[in-house]
Write a structure and sequence with these properties.
Elements (H helix, E strand, L loop, with lengths): L7 E5 L2 E6 L22 E7 L9 E3 L4 E7 L4 E14 L9 E6 L2 E7 L6 E2 L2 E8 L7 E9 L15 E4 L4 E8 L22 E2 L2 E3 L5 H18 L4 E2 L2 E3 L7 E6 L17 E7 L2 E11 L2 H14 L7 E3 L24 E2 L11 E3 L6 E5 L12 E10 L9 E6 L2 E7 L8 E8 L24 E8 L17 E4 L4 E2 L6 E5 L2 H7 L12 E5 L5 H18 L7 E3 L11 E6 L13 H22 L18 E7 L7 E7 L5 H8 L2 H4 L6 E5 L2 E5 L5 E5 L2 H9 L3 H36 L1
Parallel strand pairs: 14-16, 15-17, 15-18, 18-20, 33-34, 33-35, 35-37
Antiparallel strand pairs: 1-2, 3-13, 4-12, 5-11, 6-10, 6-12, 6-13, 7-8, 7-11, 9-10, 19-20, 19-21, 22-31, 23-30, 24-29, 25-28, 25-30, 25-31, 26-27, 26-29, 32-40, 36-37, 36-38, 38-39
Helix pairs in contact: 1-2, 1-4, 4-6
């Protein structure tokens, strides 16, 4: 018998809107799936280089004498063996008898290695293979190297440049992980399907019983965007399989009348249900079941899961009802800097001590900033910041600084106070990239500053000066703290929203214009009813990519198959398919036919211009079918609404869909997407400007006129002259009327 927990009112993103009734007990007759087969736990060997783990400072010296390498351990893994393989070079001035290198694991001293041990010298490097105690492995781990260096036994100055050692970038950590058979509980969710302890890319297969319909695809897209939002910078990819038994952590969609073969005897459900079970073929692999009486209930089950998982317990949860979810407002994505008010730094942090730096050359304070890509920044110096900071008192007459950087480039600097730890305040700006109008095309050079279409990293680096009195003495380092106050703020509320389109850079890096509304309630996605698994995988990778950008599920995205009755007004549109795949059985005047014809024209133009660099593409008809493995991303104005946009993701064949997926999953490749069309093949990406610009957004009318005429000074001068003459004429007429009135009054008198 199913126990029902009382109805819960959840508050999600400060909006109280949904109710779920969660059943914590598993359904009957499921014992066969509880434990799976008792096969031996698999062991995998994972090798991670220091560079892949994010180590950026490989050099140690007398002041910065520590280097830290962080690594994680998944919830469903048990570390059985841990080995540290590293090499380093050191200053020839260091004295071997007293200089040494300490190695710590989670602040437990593992070994002390003497500097200059000839037994470990290979070439010009000292190589070591150090076994570490795997019992000390936790969820989040740190290996720390500490250099104790002496170059003189009498006169030692830690600031001397002769004290140094440098770790090799090829150094690595090797860990043997044994799989653990976790209990099938929602208390762990989203683990093990996504585990924030795992810094690698998420690879989560989605399994369907048969070819999915629109509602099933909407459910899957919502769930993939949720996992994408969880994965963030890790990226997430979603292979698609049809009627396949899972062999790794997977998601399975099934209805009462449409189940994969391995679930044929699974009990039917009456309400939207989500469950976690072990795979019947691999007990160490967990399966997230999304179940419904029909496909409409699959969408309800997913929405209930992504907004209510924090109150779900046990192995099974039934969604009894969901209140109407409010539509998201423009530019209110959780991962974006808000556009309606100033945002404090305290709202942008991921952990409590993120705004604090400790040490003479401590770790800088870093914040990730993502803005609406259509901020109208024309003739603006940058985005204003109110900076409040404090620090421990510094040595008088010594120049200690706080440096501000954006994306690793210096922006501004501030002098640290030597009086007290009272906060200091400063007004500064974040400059913008020196691009042409509205960041539409990049120049050959760029100034330091923000790129509104991508994620930006704001850095504050505290640098404390040290007083010296003689060659062998200095005030010892220690106890230095710097902090950026959480009340510091960044404000873009005074900026309007206006951008030149098509802009594939904004699409590839920010999902714009579709992410203007984080839930995508003003977007429609078109794809074939019989799309291949690779095309569906592209859809899920795309929505996962959008989730990573906005931090919110795309549960309002409307997915449609080709239809004569399709209405596409007042929608931004995404097309996924092959050339000519939508044109069969369509009348010439239908909305979809008009849209596809426009898309095909842009694709042909992109391919022809990409091959011959000419604008005369209308004279030649290029058949994309004659081209091999090729993909094209194109943007153009919607034929149904001048304020709406269309982006098409076109592949020449099924294999070409992987080109598009790989591009979305690579920061290096998405950074190359720009202009109005991008041609992608196995050798790289070429971007092309194939269509005329159009603009979306709103600015005041006088600004709009001035902006569009700013590069036409002759026209602007003529209009200014006409305006001046018109104003003069109006004043002349007014003065003439006043004069006539006064004269008439004098005559009457």
């Amino acid at each position: 018998m199913i126990k029902t927990i009382s109805t819960l009112l959840l508050t999600v993103y400060a909006l109280s809107f949904s109710q779920w009734v969660v059943s914590a007990e598993p359904l009957a007759n499921k014992a066969i799936f509880e434990d799976g087969y008792p096969e031996q736990a698999p062991v995998e060997t994972l090798t991670m280089s220091f560079e892949s783990l994010g180590l950026s400072t490989f050099k140690l010296d007398g002041i910065n004498n520590s280097a830290r390498v962080d690594f994680t351990n998944r919830l469903d893994k048990l570390g059985k063996q841990l080995t540290l393989d590293f090499s380093y070079t050191h200053s020839p001035s260091l004295i071997g008898k007293v200089s040494h290198l300490k190695v710590f694991l989670n602040e437990n001293l593992m070994t002390v290695l003497p500097i200059g041990d000839k037994n470990n010298l290979i070439g010009n490097k000292y190589e070591h293979k150090v076994p570490l105690n795997p019992k000390l492995i936790k969820d989040f781990n740190q290996i720390r190297f500490e250099l104790v260096g002496f170059y003189d036994l009498v006169c030692q100055d830690d600031h001397s440049a002769t004290i140094w050692a440098e770790l090799s970038k090829s150094s690595r950590i090797t860990v043997d992980n044994q799989s653990l058979a976790l209990d099938s509980l929602f208390e762990y969710f989203p683990a093990p399907f996504f585990d924030n302890r795992d810094a690698t890319k998420v690879n989560l297969p989605f399994i369907f019983a048969s070819q999915p319909d629109e509602q099933t695809l909407e459910a899957a897209a919502t769930l993939s965007s949720f996992f994408g939002a969880q994965a963030k910078w890790r990226k997430a990819q979603f292979p698609v399989k049809i009627n396949h038994a899972p062999t790794q952590h997977s998601v399975v969609f099934a209805t009462n009348n449409n189940k994969p073969d391995f679930l044929l005897n699974y009990p039917d459900v009456e309400k939207p249900t989500v469950e976690i079970i072990s795979s019947p073929t691999q007990r160490y692999a967990k399966v997230l079941l999304v179940l419904g009486k029909d496909t409409a209930q699959l969408k309800e089950a997913v929405v209930g899961l992504v907004f209510g998982y924090k109150v779900m317990t046990g192995r099974s949860a039934t969604i009894d009802g969901i209140n109407t979810l409010p539509l998201r407002k423009a530019y209110d994505a959780p991962f974006w800097v808000r556009s309606d008010r100033a945002v404090t730094f305290a709202e942008l942090i991921d952990y409590p001590t993120q705004l604090q730096s400790e040490g003479l050359r401590g770790q800088p304070v870093r914040l990730d900033l993502r803005f609406a890509p259509d901020l109208f920044t024309w003739r603006e110096n940058g985005i204003p910041i109110t900076l409040n900071y404090r620090n421990t008192p510094v040595e008088p007459n010594m120049l200690s600084r706080l440096n501000m950087l954006i994306n690793g480039q210096f922006i501004d600097g501030f002098i640290l106070s030597n009086k007290s730890s009272d906060p200091l305040s400063s007004q500064t700006i974040l400059p913008l990239l020196a691009n042409e109008k509205l960041n539409q095309s990049r120049q050959d050079f760029e100034l330091n500053g923000l790129d509104l279409s991508t994620n930006n990293q704001l850095t504050y680096d505290f640098n404390f000066a040290v007083s010296k009195s003689g060659e062998c003495s200095a005030i010892p380092a220690g106890g230095e703290f710097g902090a950026i106050d959480g009340s510091s703020s960044i404000d873009v509320s005074r900026f309007h929203h206006y951008i030149a389109m098509p802009n594939l850079r904004a699409f590839a890096n920010a999902g714009f214009p579709f992410t203007k509304f984080a839930d995508l309630h003003q977007s429609t996605l078109l794809m074939e009813a019989n799309s291949s698994v690779k095309a569906i995988s592209l859809l899920l990778n795309f929505t996962g990519h959008l989730g990573a950008i906005t931090g919110y599920p795309t549960h309002q995205l409307d997915i449609q198959f080709p239809s004569e009755q399709l209405k596409l007004t007042d929608k931004d549109i995404i097309i996924i398919g092959k050339p000519d795949s939508f044109t069969q059985s369509l009348t010439k005047d239908s909305d979809l036919s008009v849209l596809i014809n426009n898309s095909q024209r842009i694709v042909d133009q992109a391919i022809y211009n990409g091959a011959y660099d000419t604008q005369d593409s209308d004279k030649v008809k290029v058949s994309i079918k004659s081209v091999g493995r090729l993909a094209v991303i194109s943007g153009f104005q919607s034929p149904f609404d001048s304020e709406r946009s269309v982006v098409s993701l076109i592949a020449t064949n099924d294999d070409a869909y992987t080109l598009l997926s790989d591009t979305l999953l690579s920061d290096e490749k998405t950074a190359q997407i720009m202009g109005s069309s991008a041609i992608i093949n196995s050798q790289g990406i070429k971007t092309i400007k194939t269509d005329e610009q159009y603009y979306v957004g709103q600015v005041p009318i006088h600004t709009l006129i001035w902006f569009h005429l700013s590069d036409r000074p002759f026209v602007l001068a003529i209009l200014s002259l006409i305006t001046l003459l018109l104003i003069s004429f109006i004043f002349w007429r007014l003065l003439a009327l006043l004069t006539k009135k006064r004269l008439s009054e004098g005559d009457n008198a």
